[in-house]
Amino acid sequence: MLLFKLLSVCVQKMRIYCEFFLYFSPMMGKIGWVIFMKANKNDFNKYSEAIDKIQEGNESMIELFNELEDDDPLINFGQDVIDDIGKAKEKFGDETVDKKINTVVREMLSWLNLNEEE
Fold first, then answer.
1. Residue 93: HSE in the Cβ half-sphere, 13 Å Cα cutoff
2. Edge-to-edge strand ranges of the sheet holding 16-25
3. Positive or negative, the Cα torsion across 90, 95, 96, 97?
4. How many CA atoms does the CB half-sphere of 92 hold within 13 Å?
């Protein structure tokens, strides 16, 4: 395997020294990258802590994703009704339209005798 040094950069914020090498393996016919990183103990610890925090965030997001529930609507409005509700909210405001819809639905549900046993 032949290594050709292409680029050396210093990552300023963490002061981690990185060397990037392009390698070519004639026997395997492959070309790829190798990265060597160097850091002092203090910077190594900062970098390690940053990776740990990223991992914790990933685990939290995976946990939230796994606990997702289906968001089934209570009422399946037709698209025309959804459009009209949107127009009404733009014209009269969310609170007013929500209050009116709740009043109408509450009145309609009172007709159904929900508290009586059949």
1. 3
2. 2-11, 16-25, 30-38
3. positive
4. 12
Contact 28, 5 (CB under 8 A): no
Residue pLDDT, tens place only, 28-69 = 667 776 666 677 788 778 878 888 888 888 888 899 889 888
Q: In the chain, which residue ranges form alpha helices assigned H by DSSP?
A: 41-66, 79-92, 94-110
DSSP string, 14-36: TTEEEEEEEEEETTTTEEEEEEE
User: Does pTM surpass 0.90?
Assistant: no
Burial class (CB in 10 A: 0-12, 13-18, 19+), 17: middle
Amino acid at 6: L
**What is the 8-class DSSP label of residue 12?**
T
